Amino acid sequence: MRSSDDVVLAVLNAPVEMRTADIARQVGLSTESTRKIRIGESYVNLFPKVDRITQEQMSRTCESCEFFQRTSKRKSWCNLGYPEACNSRFARGCGAYTQRGAA
Ligand code: SF4
């Protein structure tokens, strides 16, 4: 049986591009509790050296990125050539993400 410290660490160590709901399912917490741990609203003093993700990172999707192109419901791509672009989860961890209309 895992301690609550282990659960918090598992949440914090999950890949940034992973959806919160999927992490929640893996660790056995609610999505909301998992979200709060991820962005540092809960357990912020536990493992303080482990980075939390920002609310901005949390809401990133390829669809909101300047480099995302779509010509139809089934045809979309990343102008920078990242093959994962059709997977909206990818944008959270993409270092090239640029908010559409920000430039
Ligand atoms: S640059 Fe990154 S975030 Fe933007 S569309 Fe390509 S893969 Fe998605």
Describe this structure in words.
The protein has helices at residues 4-13, 20-27, 31-39, 55-58; strands spanning 68-70, 76-78. The N and C termini lie far apart (49 Å). The protein is built from four helices and two strands, in the order ααααββ. The chain has a two-stranded antiparallel sheet. The longest helix is centred in the first third of the chain and has 10 residues, at 4-13. Helix 2 (20-27) crosses helix 3. It has two domains: 4-53, Arc Repressor Mutant, subunit A, CATH 1.10.10; 60-93, no CATH class. The protein is elongated and about 45 Å long. The chain is mostly helical and 103 residues long. The model has no long low-confidence stretch (mean pLDDT 89). Iron/sulfur cluster (SF4) binds at residues 62, 65, 67-68, 78, 80, 82, 84-85, 90-91, 94, 96-97.
| Level-2 CATH architecture of the largest domain | Orthogonal Bundle
In whole angstroms, the N-to-C terminal distance is 49 Å
User: For the report, how would you describe the main beta sheet?
Assistant: 2 strands, antiparallel
How many structural units, i.e. domains?
2
> What structural category characterises the helix and strand content?
mainly alpha
Number of helices: 4
Q: Compute the gyration radius: what is it?
A: 16 Å
Average pLDDT, rounded to a whole number, is: 89
